[in-house]
Amino acid sequence: MTDLITDLLIYIGFGVITFSIGMIVGYQLLNHHYGRRFMVIAQQCSEADSVIPIVDELIKET
Description:
Blueprint (H helix, E strand, L loop, with lengths): L1 H47 L3 H10 L1
Helix pairs in contact: 1-2
């Protein structure tokens, strides 16, 4: 019985560690993608001297 509980705790531990790693990697990838996208849109706004590129991006994302 104790072997079953020990195995269960090990599997739960692996699940928590895997979930945590997935959340951290996913956050980093999304942060990188949208950070780069923001810089592109900011450059477009600077060139156009307007906020229309931001509005267009919001319409495209929703």
